[in-house]
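My hope is that you will study the record closing this message with an eye to the fold:
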Amino acid sequence: MGYSFFMKTLIEIFENQFEKLHERTKKFVQEIPDEKLFLKPRELENSFAMFSCGEYILRSAAAIEQTFGGITTRLWDDPFEWTLPEELSTVEKMLEYLAEVDETRRKGFAFFTSDEDLRRELPAPDQLKSIAEILLETIARAEHFQGRAFAVRQMLSADKPTRV
């Protein structure tokens, strides 16, 4: 029995992180009333551009969709360009989109048979990167946008945010 027998594979660790991100996002979206999904906080002078919770959640999901679309089909187009907030204007439609993105992610993980696959390099989209590096960057980008959505929700609500 080697030490690695007791360790999770890197694929399992990555997959678990993406699943946790997906579950947090679903729970968060379910707590937002439709009328507040794309409500923007007021913009202050000398501050960064403000987006709505819905826009940040779409950006988070689009990062994941782009990555797994790139891994499985080598098409690295940004889904945010064609995923219009107007078409996902309700919590129900947003949850349907999140389910589609999660299915794309699951199909992407089905391509991996061992941790060695994570060392393979892909043109992602501008330069060669290992799949592991692509996944790390995607998790970071998706969680960044998710965190911004959480912050906007807190700005718009007098209630203490639910723990997600």
Observations:
- The domain at 3-38+50-156 is CATH 1.20.120.450 (Four Helix Bundle (Hemerythrin (Met), subunit A)).
- Confidence is low (pLDDT under 50) at residues 1-6.
- The radius of gyration is 17 Å.
- The first strand starts at residue 121 and ends at 123.
